[in-house]
């Protein structure tokens, strides 16, 4: 029997004259790659380093006019002294780390673990020795697993944008060896026409994914649904997309083809190819489990809900106080009640708007930026006009006030024109789509 780690091939020659067939064995003579850093150990001669440091005069460092130059000279001199007083020794084979995440200290722990195991296998070993071995073995295995996990995590982060290196790491973790398939299966196809040959080849490559998936499921002895439930999707990175099996809840609720677990910018493209005429309907919903509001806006929904409750309590309390003191009420107390009622109306309006958006989705779409920009511009011009009105004296010239009112009036006219044009366009679209209910409601609202 010949044991080797090198590549080998055997050939058996058929011999018609005798029943003995000669065998040819070929062994690759290429040397296996060995890690020199694991087979050698650096040893420093500290006494030689100490003697050279004592003999050094350091004049060039004292004469240096710049601190950076002096530090560079000092570092260079130390490296020269260390290189002179270092040498390599061979590490014994059993103490050489086999994997990059295994240190020499871990190798020594593995050797000690194996020695303890041999001692425990003896019949005269005590129970205390067995407990000591089990504790040491579990601790050693845990350290090895943690080092391996930490090493591969660092490698994945390091080669995050390199797909080739990432796949190498995945294959190393899963112990997948790249075996080239035999191409004779596709080369020996015998068909009547080139089209049939191409169909056979296309069928082979189109079914590779399904065959691999079935082999994985058969090896793991688990179904696709159970395997998908074990997948942890809480820490999915951005710009990632996956087609997952649909659970029974989704099947009963809606036909979901794709679920995106993270926020981001996505391009969705649907292509339909068929010779027959048919009608396809696709619905895209960008909603979170809490609703359609984004994470930045969602806190406003409970805030205005709480404010509605606060204003309701305040209004009822103020109404109760006013009813008890109705004989001594002043005019300012009516204004206080009006302000509280106005705050209640404002909070309830905002709460209704955010609740409607959260339940049915936003309706502005691309016009959101234009509406926000117009509102900010109107607020700035209105604030300037209000400030000039407050600081304007009756006897002074009203030129600045007039100049501030002109752009505000033009902006008001532009907003009115924009609203009526958009309303007319919406009514025309609803009329073309023959949506009578929405058309009538929009017409009554506009008039």
TrEMBL record:
One of its GO terms (cellular component) is Golgi apparatus. Residues 299-362 form the GOST seven transmembrane domain. One of its GO terms (biological process) is retrograde transport, endosome to Golgi. The keyword Cytoplasm does not apply. Its main location: membrane. It is found in: Membrane. It comes from the Eukaryota. Signal peptide: none annotated. It is a multi-pass membrane protein. The chain crosses the membrane at residues 296-320, 332-355, 367-388. Keywords: Membrane, Signal, Transmembrane, Transmembrane helix. This is GOST seven transmembrane domain-containing protein.
